[in-house]
Amino acid sequence: MSLASDVLEGLLRESFSSAVIEIQDLVGDGDHYQVAVFSNDFVGKTRVQQHQMVYQALKGKMGNELHAMALKTGILPV
Amino acid sequence: MITAQERIQADITANAVVVYMKGTAETPQCGFSAIVVQILSSLGVPFKDVNVLADHEVRQGIKDFSNWPTIPQLYIQGEFIGGCDIVREMHQAGELQELLKEKGILAA
Question: For chain A, which residues make up each domain, given as ranges?
Fold first, then answer.
C-alpha cells in the first residue's frame, strides 16, 4: 500500500486548482503523509466537510492505497 | 438480523461519547487511535470504545456511516465530530472542551 507523492499532489490539484498544497512524506515510504490544503473552496465549510472534500478528491484511495495521512485544511489568507 | 449500521446508530445513541478505534482504550493498536484516547482521558471524559479490528462489519460500516474513510472516529451525542487530526486541532484550540461542556458531558 503506497502512493507516490506526485500522484497524491495531482489528485489534490485536480480538485483544488488554486489551492496551496503542502505534502510531506513523513517516513519516505509513500504511505505516511502529512498534507496541508489551503483553499477558498473551504469557505463556509466545517472541518469535517473540508476533510471530506479532500478525501473525495483522493477518489477512495484514502484508507486503501494510502494508509496514513495527517491532514490540515484551511482557507487561503486574504 | 441487525445490520452494522443499526448497531452503530444504537451505540452512538446510547452512549454520549463513542470512539471507533483500532484496539481498545486500554491497548490501542494504532497511534492515531491512541491520540484520541489520550485526549479524552486527559479531559476525564468517560467514553465507549469500539474496536473495529474485532468486528469487520463495523470496520467498514462506520466508514460508510460517516462518509469518512479512516479510523479513529469520535462521536458525541450521536454526532460525528471528526478523526484524529480534527479532534487534536479542536483540543488544542479549546473547542473540544467547550463542546463537551455545552453538551453537559464535562462540568462547566
Answer: 5-74
